[in-house]
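User: For a teaching handout, I'd like to show students what a predicted protein-ligand complex looks like in token form. I'll give you the sequence and the SMILES for pyridoxal-5'-phosphate. Please answer with just the structure.
Assistant: Understood, here is the input followed by the structure.
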Amino acid sequence: MNPGFKKMWANRIQNLPPYLFAEIDRQKQELLQKGVDVIDLGVGDPDRPTPAFIIEALQRAAEDPKNHIYPSYSGMNSFREVAAQWCQRRFGVKLDSEREVITLIGSKEGIAHFPLGFINPGDLVLVPDPAYPVYSVATQFAGGRVYAMPLKKENGFLPDLEQIPKKVADEAKLLFLNYPNNPTSAVANREYFEEVVDFAKRHQIIVCHDAAYSEIYFDGERPPSFLEIPGAKEVGIEFHSLSKTFNMTGWRIGFATGHPDLIAALGKIKTNIDSGVFQAVQWAGIAALQSDGRCVEGMRGLYQKRRDVLAGELQRLGLDVYWPKASFYLWIGVPKKFDSMSFAALLLKEASIVATPGIGFGPSGEGYIRMTFTCEVDRLQEAVDRIQRLGHL
Ligand SMILES: *Cc1c(COP(=O)(O)O)cnc(C)c1O
């Protein structure tokens, strides 16, 4: 590569936060090369294949030349209608599929582009800490400033809106939330969302709710949608994903729902950047969203069994485990003599287990590690046995 090019990188990528996991990635690769049996509880990617009926819908649609053209920018009408019907069935949320739903190339794409529609240089955005990194990076790409809202265990990992100074709240333009939450696995109830609607109205803030894990819940307790709260549609947008629900992370399809003016702004950005989702993938998405939900029920049962093994056994070993009611993540307080980096390093070095240091999700993730349960129970049990053998916890 031309040695000058790195110096020519724009500030927006020069200034990206350092990639904290580089050293862990390097050590993991080294162990794999030595033939060590590494248990990777780091990546949050469903391990089971996409259900066959979804793949078949893609195959049929891919063969039809009508689907080979540029798709519509905002998504096929039929996909948006089915997405709206799904929101009505699942959450009781009524949506106008033409004005209040937009197809996304995965929810990450919509989340990353949304701030470009609202944030001018210097504008303030409220972002949870720890969090999925896209909220703050997308804010910075748009020239905005991040105000971090710490997620604390004593508040159930929900931002304490009362703690946000009035001046900051009045100045802020956007507020990002994500429940069920990655990385903490916390769930928000309706009462909390009601507080958020009230806060957003008082301070004229747009709420961006990331609902990627709305369908990965346990014990039959279905997490609410932000939009099912009265008044929420006047203040917010919600990002939905088919990735985690239907084991479709590689397919790149999701959708956003919310106030028509918010959807329209996102649409304006997208029209000038991408050209929509391959129609065959949207047909596969239609098959997924229209299905009776048995495949999702099956996955929930599977994740719940895995949760019970990993969370239950680690708790028995004396680790400080936050019991997940949703998502496929375990948020674990590290033992006293460690911080999040050194505990993750110990697990890798002494037990060949990959876990993600909490600090990688923001400063308030210090003191925690995240483990995923997207692998089979026997692997989770093996991980527990290795941790038990470490002893000195
Ligand atoms: C996985 C994930 C997403 C991205 O989902 P895609 O639809 O695959 O882009 C969004 N938000 C959170 C919190 C996630 O963990």
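For the handout, you might add this sentence: The chain has two domains: 7-49+294-390, 52-289.
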